[in-house]
Amino acid sequence: MTGATEALTHRLRPLLAAICLGATSVLASAPVLSVPALARGPDGIADVAEKVIDAVVNISTSQTVEAKGGGGGEGRGTMPQLPPGSPFEEFFDDFFKNRRGGPGGKGGDLQPHKTNSLGSGFIVDTSGIVVTNNHVIADADEINVIMNDGTKIKAELVGVDKKTDLAVLKFKPPKPLTAVKFGDSDKLRLGEWVIAIGNPFSLGGTVTAGIVSARNRDINSGPYDSYIQTDAAINRGNSGGPLFNLDGEVIGVNTLIISPSGGSIGIGFAVPSKTVAGVVDQLRQFGELRRGWLGVRIQQVTDEIAESLNIKPARGALIAGVDDKGPAKPAGIEPGDVVVKFDGKDIKEPKDLSRVVADTAVGKEVDVVVIRKGQEQTVKVTLGRLEDTDKPVQASNKAQPEPEKPVTQKALGLDLATLSKDLRSRYKIKDSVKGVIITNVDGTSDAADKRLSAGDVIVEVAQEAVSNAADVKKRVDQLKKDGKKSVLLLVSNADGELRFVALSVQ
């Protein structure tokens, strides 16, 4: 064997080992070939894809961006805004960084320019109605729909819903279109096969398949989270594309992924079709969302709160406050009520109530089942309309005032005082707030863990109003004697917003 041959053999040895390992793996896995085809994936994927692929479109948008003056790295602002992960991103990044105002470049003469972004969508009506994500078209000056065959048509915005991240577009069809219909996402089963189709980067439709990993996922991205989770590959640029069942029906809109790298790691989320269909109908009809409104503030029923309210097992949505101008007030719903059923639908947690109320028609009279002092009651409520405001709530940055001395009573790790005019002024507590003020909290107590703080006002103890510190001490001592493990407090902040807090009395 020559030296060259030996060197070549040495270089090829790892590859040969890999080939051998692969061959061994094939031999070891040979019995799998006898497993039915459905165990490896359904045969119908190709049929579904062929039937619906022309209904999936690319959404291309452009936006005018003001120039960023100055040298240095500012020149990079002219770079086209391709979706992260685009095969062209590295090229443009290098070009604009090095030649258009990056280190060594000249970026002082920049002009207002256009930026572009890409996403996916799908046709739901042959008249030219397209569904996509709101974040795909947000702030766009111009929106274009690019068909699977490359045809490009200018589209108009029909309406958006930021809370579900959905948008509806319309365009004039240049030729007959293929449209898809919505299926019933409520009938999805865990492990069921689904197909994700997108049109990223306007390269044409891309098809991936996987299963339903979970349903009703709440990832805290919005007030009505109830996502379908799937391991079908969903990548950047697929936002707004449809998720199909094997009948070719849309059962979700691909919206989010969790990924440290920007690519699919098998954790994707789709807005379920039941939500999408309702939003699309309202946007087409009104150009906006008209959600039901109950007029309450709600919180979780923890095990401690459930024990205090004699509710077994812990469930429902606890009413922490009632809007004076809302529909719940005249219906007789009160703070401390726990909603366990709304319009015939079981309420297991607060998110359930938020979603079902929002999905209920404005003006509809519904039965609401509440647990009040251990007993179920049914009240009738006529829903109002939720005002859709996106105004941010400003956090208070004022310093916490020094606690007033002396303290009248101590209980539950709290220093308590009767609410005087001086204390009301010191803590800026509204005149409408009545109760016993907390002037200090023991940092090692359960109260500190539950985030009670100086300036909070205890309005009720075990659903009985209190007016002075002695009342609180007396009620807590009695609950201890009765063998209760916890005490339920109704607490108000300085502005009168209420919440329930259960504290251990042991």
From TrEMBL:
Q: Which residues form the PDZ domain?
A: 283-374, 412-494
Q: Where does substrate bind?
A: 135, 165, 237-239
Q: Tell me, what is an example of a GO biological process annotation in this record?
A: proteolysis
Q: From the Swiss-Prot or TrEMBL record, what is one GO molecular function term?
A: serine-type endopeptidase activity
Q: Known InterPro entries for this protein?
A: PDZ (IPR001478), PDZ_sf (IPR036034), Pept_S1C_Do (IPR011782), Peptidase_S1_PA (IPR009003), Peptidase_S1C (IPR001940)
Q: Which reaction(s) does its UniProt entry say it catalyses? A: Acts on substrates that are at least partially unfolded. The cleavage site P1 residue is normally between a pair of hydrophobic residues, such as Val-|-Val
> Is Flavoprotein tagged as a keyword?
no
**Family of the protein in this entry:** Belongs to the peptidase S1C family.
- In Swiss-Prot or TrEMBL terms, this protein is called Probable periplasmic serine endoprotease DegP-like
Q: Which organism is it from?
A: Bradyrhizobium lablabi
